Input
Amino acid sequence: MLKGYPKTVVTKDGTTVLLRPLDKTDTEKLHTMLALIPEEEQWFLRENLTDIRLLERWMERLDFNYILPIVAVREDSGEIIGFLRLYRSPSGCARHVAHLRVTIHPQYRSQRVGSWMILDCAKLALEHGIEKLVAEFVSEVEEVAIKAARRLDFHHEAVIKDYVKDRRGDYKDLIIMVKTLYRDWSDF
Amino acid sequence: MTSEGESVFESTSIGRSVLYETPRGPLTIRTGWPPDSFDGLRLDAGLGRFPHYSSIIQRPESFKEVAARRGSRITLAIAEPNTVAGYLTCWYPAEGERWANLGDLMYEMGAIEVSRNYRGLHIARGMLELTLNDDFFEDKIAFMQGLSWHWDLEGNKLTAAQYRQILMKLCSPFNFREVYTNEPNVALRVENIMMIRVGSRVSPEDYKRFRYLRFGINQPA
Output
């Protein structure tokens, strides 16, 4: 299902990074990375995978028919520095749509690791017949990610006002961004 | 090209050729065309300019220009008696292009096309096979950049995603694989693709230089 991996990319500072499917043996390394996500950000995560027990359960239930998980791994140390999930709907009517979630190690942000992971994911989606990639962002909290998504041709599709609350109870908007994967020349 | 029938291989001082029997008649695939050898050839009507697609080579004289480039190679599929049914051209990257920074290490599979009237006969595979069956490529990183705006999607009745898959299927038996790059043309659209074949004598150091260059870095950190 996931052919042609690992893929190699080089970050802005010259670090060689391998992109490859998540492996059952990655649990500990993945947990190490997720534990470094600042608490402020963890608050907004849809899945609480920073808890090792929940992460183990999530890994056990992993079904590549519905979730395509890719990790970015430093070639020299094997450290996981990025984690992308592509969620596919089990429903036939929405099988052409996939939801994207990306988590990047705090020290490797602004190194384009996330951008390469999203590009890789878009190619993967194309191979799986997916036509729309959907990503959700919390306004004011994920502005850097929103900017990066815009550079990768995601556009604002919708804004749901006051959809989430931060730790202090203040409302934040949810921004839904979509990237359409064009299928032929006429769409250009 | 076994599915189409018999083939006969011949090697001469100026190139190699294979004769195929196809459902559309006999066809010769030949490498090693000197610049003065294109007189009398004509392009099949399925190569040329169409409403949503134009061939890269639109007149036989263009082969002469390609052949005059340093180190270029041309492979043609010729239908009897002198009709070009397909072509493959390759060359060193031009000065000023990113890949030229690695000197003669990089070699580009510049264009490959089969006439609309001869598709489905595995001619592209035959041309690739004959071209790559040469020790020359063992010192090279051969690369191709598949840019979707050059693809004849209409003529093939394919989506860009399908065309990309076919390109990968065509090249992977010859040890080509997809690599990522921030080269602007390749990076412009998701379906675009860069594929490489690393020759057996390419050193790990040279491969590393290439890896960095793919991301616009000239010197490894």
